[in-house]
């Protein structure tokens, strides 16, 4: 075998006279950006649904329903931040929640509204905003130290 053939066989990956083996095809996956965008759309829709459910729940069972509605919002905002591994994961459902709560709190010409003018509605609106700020702030510290934290045994 000459030196020229030796270089060609090494470059092609096969021996002299052997055809190069074809690489196995990997299944095509969606790009990470598309998955992240889909996650954010899902979190926004969950924020809208949580606001509607919480608005109805806080008025139905006043003290317990209000706490349950705020706990559900907090769970969604924290879960969104953990799922997206970023602060945006907490902000997107909070934006959906806030837009929906504002939309539900405005009265229409027909007199239809979800939120009454009681204390529970104001506590739900302001408490939900406070919960969103707290969850977003807490996720900022967690995502900054995500890779450096030591795991317990």
UniProtKB/TrEMBL annotation:
Keywords: Membrane, Transmembrane, Transmembrane helix. The chain crosses the membrane at residues 34-54, 60-77, 84-107, 113-135. Pfam families: DUF6113. It comes from the Bacteria. The keyword Transmembrane applies. The keyword Glycosyltransferase does not apply. Residues 1-27 are annotated as: Disordered. This is DUF6113 family protein. The lineage of its organism: Bacteria, Bacillati, Actinomycetota, Actinomycetes, Kitasatosporales.
């Amino acid at each position: 075998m000459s030196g020229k053939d030796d270089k060609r066989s090494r470059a092609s990956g096969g021996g002299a006279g052997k055809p190069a083996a074809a690489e196995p095809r990997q299944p095509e996956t969606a790009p990470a950006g598309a998955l992240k965008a889909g996650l954010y759309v899902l979190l926004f829709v969950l924020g809208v649904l949580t606001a509607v459910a919480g608005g109805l729940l806080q008025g139905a069972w006043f003290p317990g329903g209000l706490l349950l509605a705020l706990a559900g919002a907090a769970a969604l905002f924290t879960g969104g931040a953990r799922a997206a591994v970023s602060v945006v994961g907490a902000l997107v459902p909070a934006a959906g929640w806030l837009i929906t709560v504002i939309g539900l709190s405005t009265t229409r010409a027909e007199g239809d509204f979800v939120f009454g003018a009681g204390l529970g509605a104001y506590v739900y609106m302001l408490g939900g905003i406070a919960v969103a700020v707290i969850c977003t702030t807490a996720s900022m510290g967690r995502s900054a130290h995500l890779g450096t934290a030591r795991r317990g045994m």
